[in-house]
Amino acid sequence: MAETDRAAVLIDRIYAALVGEIGWDVFLQEVATCLPNGKATLFFHDLDSGTGALSLNAGFSADAAAAYSSHFSRVNPWMRAASQRPVGLAVRAEQMLPRPDLLRTEFYADYLQPHGLGTAVGVTVYKEERCNFMLSILGAEADDATIDSARALLGQVAPHLRRVFSFYRRSPQAGATLQGGLSVLDLLGIGMILVSADRRVRHCNPAAEGLITAGGAVGHDGEGRLRFSSPEVTGALDRALGTIRLGLSRGLLDTQLLRRDGDRAPLRVRFVQLDPSSAQVFFTGAAAMVLIEDPAVSSTAARIESARAAYGLTAAELRVARRLIEGLTPTEIAAVDGVSPLTVRSQLKSIFAKTDTRRHSAPERRRRQSGSARNRPAGRRAASR
């Protein structure tokens, strides 16, 4: 396939993944073919902590990805130079570190060589404060023409990946998408706020908007960041966001009680990390989901029954949804409920399908689908030019 044709295909894959037609793994699998024994990854590196992760990848085993996150990201000798290169500039491994120097490193001896890797090309797609988000292809040693072709290809697709980052950081719909199908939160009266690492609000549901508008317990500070009436709860959120940025934790990060004026029961505030393996999470960056629950509202029988009836959820599915709201991971839910992880995954798929497909009436869904079918190809072609 000619280089221009391959670039066009990959750019089309980017926009197909963005709108959910394909998974990002399809894009990465195709990128990986640019080098022999190729492995491709969308990954990040935090300069303050010196750590990173192969957030999305094709070709690495789960153990290899875990080893990179836990240790080898700290000794990756390419990252010093990678942190200084401009966004969009694709480079070869030798431009980041001379090959004789690479061959003397622990990273080469204990990570690259055991996986049959000897070279790489990479491009920085996005920078956020001291964190770099990159696309890289690693592969076996190859001739200069092959490596240069792969490098040029990354340079061509980088601007389109940068648009994906911009979309997820600016679009309210992207925040809603992160919630999968858990719009059941609305019916239970539980507030959900998606906050970035600097505590700025990226998305919130109607219940959370009501709490912020009412002021008092939940609101914004002078710089537009989320704050609580209790400095202790605000500080707990900052600590939770810090652990996310450093990659030190996942799942439920903390639970706090937020006292209110009068005789009203305190609000229960939970800080939950989004699934770090999600593509949306990679493009969104460090973020936490803040769940704010008024027990007097969310625990009422009428609220629970309305949530179950509105989406046609079974009792077991509603129980799983509640566990997720409490911050449990699917594996933890399986352990608590005494069922297999496969059962929980099946229930999650059913929850997401029901809460998504019942969000609009059937005629409205058909209208949206027909409009998408008419407009999407032209839109993607225009974007890829």
Automatic annotation (TrEMBL):
Region (Disordered): 353-385
Record-level Gene Ontology MF annotations: DNA binding
GO biological process, one term: regulation of DNA-templated transcription
Occurrences of domain HTH luxR-type (ranges): 310-367
Composition-biased stretches (Basic and acidic residues): 355-364
Listed name of the protein: Helix-turn-helix transcriptional regulator
Organism: Inquilinus limosus
